[in-house]
Amino acid sequence: MATPLKEGTNISVEWKHFGVSYAMPSMEMATDHYSAGFIVSGDRKTITPVGTYSYSAGDVGLTKPYLYHRTVADSAKPYERILIKYTPEFIKPFIENMGQQVFDEIYEKNVCHFTGKARQKVMEIFVRMEEVYTKDRPYKEFILQGMLFYLLTVIWEERLPDTERMERRTPLTVPVMEAVTYIENFYYKNPSLGEAARAANFSAAYFSRLFREQLGMSYTEYLNNVKLRHVKVLLAQTDKSIMEIAQETGYCHGNYLSGQFKKAVGMTPGAYRKNAGRH
After folding, report:
1. Is 9 exposed, middle or buried, given 0-12, 13-18 or 19+ CB atoms closer than 10 A?
2. What is the pLDDT of residues 152-202, one digit of tens each?
3. Topology of 11-168 in CATH?
4. Staple 10 to which of 14, 56, 90, 234, CB 3.0 to 4.6 Å?
């Protein structure tokens, strides 16, 4: 799953720099929020079950809840983006005033492109929202809600017509999607390749080849990435001990989790938690 919003909040805004050729390690889906991201620099490609979409600096990428997706680099340029996440409840007043059809049209195509003047206007709103979000004031969500409504209105009014940049429609096959869902539901039980293959109604050997072809990695790599993703969420958003997190995510023992985490992430779970703002 994608990192959820912090409990008790309705919106988050994050400005982040990534390394060259950064890619999400596996398919993810949000379960509690919509997202809108402005690409400050770099070229990206988002893979979903129903399409692959390319976008670049100055474009806005949009993702709805329960949409499996994975973003990867589309060039060797450094990647930088401003990402807004918000709950369905938070956007209700916008929908009540603008209409469900307008909101659906904004999120229908996953990527919005703009002319140079409109692109600057959209970026300024994203930047201003990040500035407001980082300030500690009790009424900032109220301010951000109004800014979000304005941002979505500008996106709807200023976006360019669809272009050829939606490269192709090559959906993940139903068996692979079933396997991805199975992993998300039972990752903490360390399901074997054979168990996932049975969920997809294929032999283990054939399923292994199919999985690698469509997801770009082995079944074991994908499962480990899913588990690590859940570990990161628990480290950042709970006070659970390393042992408790290990048992909850299928690592069984805290020491084993710590070793695997440091190997994959480059820091200990404790250091990751501290960087995430929990001490």
Report:
1. middle
2. 999 999 999 865 444 434 467 778 877 887 887 889 999 999 999 998 888
3. Jelly Rolls (2.60.120)
4. 90
